[in-house]
Every structure is written in C-alpha cells, then in structure tokens.
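Listing S7. Sequence submitted for prediction.
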Amino acid sequence: MNKNLLSFLPILFFLLQENLFAQISPGDLTKAHSHLEGISNCTKCHILGEQVNNSKCLDCHSEIHNLIKSGKGYHSSSEASGKNCWSCHSEHNGRNFRIVNFTPDGFNHNKTGYELIGSHKKLECSSCHQNKFIINSEIKKRSGTYLGLEQNCYSCHKDFHKGTLGNNCSNCHNTVKFRPAEGFNHDKTAFKLTGSHKNVECIKCHPMEERKGEKFQKFKGLVFISCSSCHKDIHQGKFGPDCQNCHSTNSFHQINQSAFDHSKTNFSLVGKHNSVKCSDCHKENLSSKPKHEKCTDCHQDYHKGEFVENGLLRDCKFCHNEFGFSPSLYTVEKHNTTKFQLTGSHLAVPCASCHFKTNIWHFDSIGIECIDCHNNVHGEEISSKFMGKNNCSNCHNSERWATISFEHDKTGFVLLGKHIAVSCGSCHNRGINGDVKEFKFASLGKSCLVCHKDYHYGQFRDEECERCHTFDNWKPSKFNHNNTRFSLEGAHSKVECIRCHKVIKQNNVSFSRYKLENFKCADCHS
C-alpha cells in the first residue's frame, strides 16, 4: 500500500468518527455531563437499542439513589416518584442548557419531606443550603446544590448540650423559638419539680461550666440523691439525710411540726415546752437558733435581778421546772439553808404571805426579822429592855403566837398564886381599839384595881388589898381585926361580920361597909 495512503487513514478514521457521532448524538451534553461525550461513553448513560434507563442515572447519582431508597427528599415525593429522570432532566440540549430546572422561589418545601414551620419559614434558602452544612464529601464538592443536608437539627445548629440529651431536639424545643424550651416537661425527668422548686431559675440547679474551651450548661448527670446534694445541711447531719421528715418543698420554713423530733436538738422539749408554738421561740424563722442556755434567754426575769450571785443570775431550775412555774420546787430543806430557817407555824405559811407584797414577789430583800413581816402591835407598850431591836422571840415563838415565854418577875410585878395560871390576855388585853386588839404592858400599872373590881367602893386605898387578900384566892385570909382600931375581944370575936358591917346602898350600888367611923357601944347596941 502506498505510504501516503497509510498516513491518511487515521485522519480519515477521525473524520468518519466525527461524522458518525454527529449522526448518532442528538446534541451537545450540558457542562455537567460534558466529560461523558464521545461514542465510547454512550453506554455509560444509554443501554444499546433502548432509551435512557433510570438505573444508569442513579448509578452515578448515588446521593439521589440513596434518598429514594430511604424514602427521603423531593425525589421520593409523589411529584417525582415513578418518573423517568430524563423527563425532568433532559440532555443533549447544548452546553448551557439548564438540566436542573429548579427555581427556589415558590418551591413547596413540604415535597422534600421536611416541612418548614415556625422560624424556618422566614429563612432564606441560603441560610440552610450552605456547603458547610453538607456532610457527604462528594456532594460537598458541588457548588449551588440543594442536596446533602440532613433533617436533624444538628446538621445546621450547634448542639449546645454536646450529645448529653440525645439527638431529638424536638423533645424540648420547637422551630418558633429555641428559648425557652417549651416542650420540656421536668415532671417526666427523674426529678419532679414540686413546691418552690417550680419557681427556681434553671441556672441555679443547672450550672454553667466549661468543656473543651466552650461554655456548657449541665442538665444531665446531676446528683440529687438527697436535698443536701444542692442545699447546705445547716443541721450538719444531726437529723439524718432525709430532710422531708421535717421540711417540704413549698418552703424551707414550713416545717412538719408533728413529725419533727426536737429531742435530736440540743434542747429537748419537756413539760409545758411541748405546747409552745415554734414561732414563740424561733422569732425570725424556724431555722434560726435561739439562745437557750438559760431560762432568761426566752423568759423575762420575773424576779427582776433578785437572784444575782457574783454578778451572775442564778438558774431558774433551782426553784422551777418545765412542768409549770407554780408550785415552786424550792423546798423547806432549801429554805433552811438560808439565814431564815422555817420552824413551827412558819412551815404552814404560804410563800406568798411573806414573799408577795404589793403585787410583787420579793425574796432576797424581805429581811429576816419578825418586824419585817409582822407589825409590832405593842408599839411603845414594851420597852427596849424586853424587846430590843423588835426581837419578838423574847416572848413569842414560831410554834404558836399565843404561847408566851416571858419572865414576868423582871417587870417588878411577880406573878403569885392565881396570877400564875391567869392568861396574859386576861390582864393585858384591854379590849378592841377599832379593828385591832389593844394590849397594855408598860402603861398597865401594878395596882390590883387595874384588873380587879373594887368591891369595897373606895373604902380602902389601892395598895391595901394585900393587907387582907392573897393571890391564892379572894378570901381575906390575911385580915386580922385586932390590927384595926377595934380589936375583937370576948363575945365580939364570935359575932358575924355582917352584924356590925351592914350592907348599905349608895349610888344604886349595895356593898358591905367595913370602915366604921364610930366605935361606941351605943352605935351597935341600943
């Protein structure tokens, strides 16, 4: 063969091929598919003797294939499902042909299987359809594509919870507004909010912290085994770990008093304290700790400082206890350790008789002398010789006031005979002056006529009583007629007194006349 002919064959083959392709291909491919031009590439899209089959398209467009298989995206919608690819994406229409004839304006996004609701409606398409949100690396290489987005929130939005709360954001949030999380129901968690917990800001229980250089609010993994997990145990474990035995979530200061065991505190409730309202002692609030070392920390010092010893107030329990302020526990034995011992009738005297004066109780300041409680009814009738410093014990004792122990001989009037048995009042009680018995002592006088009636009606002087009478009886056993001016001799000694000493009447009073003026015989004998 001619060498010149051999060198022309390749050129001829090329010219024939170009002409053959021009006769087979209906037109140029778009820019996207331009790399597939050439007769040797036809079978990449076409099956010989048949039209374009969807399977060939989907072999290359695997991202569409995967969406269709999973039933997602626009190509799985009723509008695209079952159609041939080429019915929407026609080829061989030239390099600049718009094979994807898609206009975002007016597009019904619901056909993608992802309905735009809430704030998503207001967004521009480009706000979501960005290359940075595409996960698939092959799709990510494309420009201007609307494919490749996932439908979960995390594909576009940052997960502030860093995977701690799962991947279904709609459990708590909605598309209208991210905050507040209106879909969240705390009651569905392991910690149901009750009482005042409902009003607590989330941040107070769910603190902000830093994770990998970013702020993070912790919602899951909090410890809430007991109240002390969040709250400081001001009781320092004294009442156990279960705060609900006493408190409720409505208010820390709202205490279940019936369940509270006050004996676990440093102050056990005894007696009357059991009936006292909590607020009577816990003035500010029930968690405040009132002073309780002394009774006067809560109670007013009723005795107004009378029991201060060495600058310190004596403890009330010395006389009282919690079962009642009265009666006092101050016993006779305790009283007898003081400067004034209770003896005799003082043992039966109520405390108030001595200690309650002018509607005020007094103790240390009432004195220990008789006159401090008893009036000196004798006034000046008893001289200091017998009653020095108002010391009643010179005559009286505490066993019985009417029992007198007094040495009458010291007065100069010795008690003899019947006088020994006579009660003091028989001579010294001079009657009632007003509402008070009047006793006479110093001013009484020693004359018999002070106490006794003068049956002789002035015939004899006061001091002459003892010439005739003794203290043993009233009979004139000491009288001796021979010591008078008229001695009895002879038959006179046998005459009855009445024969000579006649009964006379003067001033309506009858009495025997003993003092005779005349002693002549004719005066008696006629």
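Caption to Listing S7: primary sequence and predicted structure tokens for the chain studied. Residues 195 and 249 are 5 Å apart (CA to CA). Strands lie at 208-211, 214-217, 308-309, 312-313, 356-357, 360-361, 429-433, 436-439, 503-506, 509-512.
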